[in-house]
Design goal:
Distance between the termini: 55 Å
CATH class of the largest domain: Alpha Beta
Strand order of the largest sheet: 6-7-8-3-9-10
Shape: globular
Helix content: 25-40%
Strand content: 25-35%
Number of strands: 22
CATH superfamily of the largest domain: P-loop containing nucleotide triphosphate hydrolases
Length: 508
Amino acid sequence: MSEPYLRMRNISKSFPGVKALDDVQLDVYRGEVHTLLGENGAGKSTLVKILSGAYQPDEGTIVIDGKPVGFSSTRDAENAGISIIYQELILIPQMTVAENIFLGREPKTKLGLVDYKKMRADAAEEMQQLEADIDPDIPVQQLRIGQQQLVEIAKALSLHAKIFIMDEPTSALSDTEVEKLFRVIRHLQKSDVAIIYITHKIEEIFSIAQKVTVLRDGKYVGTQSVQETDSGTLINMMVGRDLGELFPKESIPVGEELLRVEGLNVRHPTLADRNILSDIHFSLQRGEILGISGLMGAGRTELMMTLFGAPPGQVISGKIYLHGKESRISTPVQAIRNRIALVTEDRKLYGLFLQLSVQMNISIVSLKQAVKMWFLRRRLEANMVHKYIDQLRIKIPSLAAAVETLSGGNQQKVILAKWMLTQPEILLLDDPTRGIDVGSKAEIYQLMNQFASEGMGIILVSSELPEILAMSDRILVLSQGRITGEFSREQATEQKIMAAATLGEAAG
């Protein structure tokens, strides 16, 4: 085999109190999809940030096409033919799709002015390559998160790089959008582009990659040919132990009805003749995990937001019953008072105050519990927070640490701890394992079992069918804002769920 197009050797990087990378290596060939795998905090993001010029290594060498290189900025890396799609979207919400794609690289007219006509046409061409029907003139803030992810991908593709780094590119995409992206990746391979692909979805590795390199605790564990390995081997390399059953669902007896929804209709926020939810009927019992499946845009998140009193549209009809009593939930404050909690799909945008401390993020909804004689008692607040840090096994350097410094799995546990302080009876989980590693996923599933066994009712929205099938006692399928299928745990299969989600077949 020829020499690697990219060779990284003996890469080390330290931050105050943390050695993020310790003697790491990576070889990537032209036309190869090389997956970088590891738990949150394993060092994957630090390694690709070094390659993209965002960080400089303390030690080590980088060789591209046989030539040693060093980057002092992301612009240097771009000029060397490296493009990165970050997991966290870096878009300006108020600007259009076209303006975001070509920000800082706008085509110019002969007079030196921005050539908006060419920019729109070029943006449309990039979106067409992704088979995405998105208007280049629409502001990004009007797009759903999956569409925003496609804009981020189009922005990277527009650089026509020779090395692409894709950091969790499918975390917000539907199955259909993932297949479109994979077709683009295969096209890039034929053009001899080298692709570094970071994912927590083990099944994606076997669909798209040829090689996989595993990192653990900032160290290089090994590189495997995808054809010569299996998921069990990779998981063991990642976590250093056998996880056993990945989905540890426990059988828990269900109790009384906690929630019932009858005839819920929610008007679209901008289209007066369209509903985003129509004629929704279902119930939730104590101790039950109710799964909600459907394609992106089916209304899953909109349903969760409506139940939490923050509907993205106008509720025009329907009733919500709590413990058999009709209740009005028109604000999140009312939802919290009715012991409803919501873990949002986008934890960093809606679930956390990233610059604030772990302690403040956990206690912020329940500060009244720490107020005595009109004063906030910091020691009492810390004791409240410590209880759930210990119970949920959240790994933090200190209570004062900014929550943005934690791994994705620990950030998700911070959100769960925040809501546990409110003593909820109904827990709404909107894609709770999005963007976290398999070890953290298993811990989230164990917590779901624990909460259900304590009498909580849980509604689980997930884009991953294996997760829905494994963790749910009952499954509802949404399509175009309507419930098109209902299945017991025993009845449910991937085929039945996809039929209801894509064809709108009423079932169950």
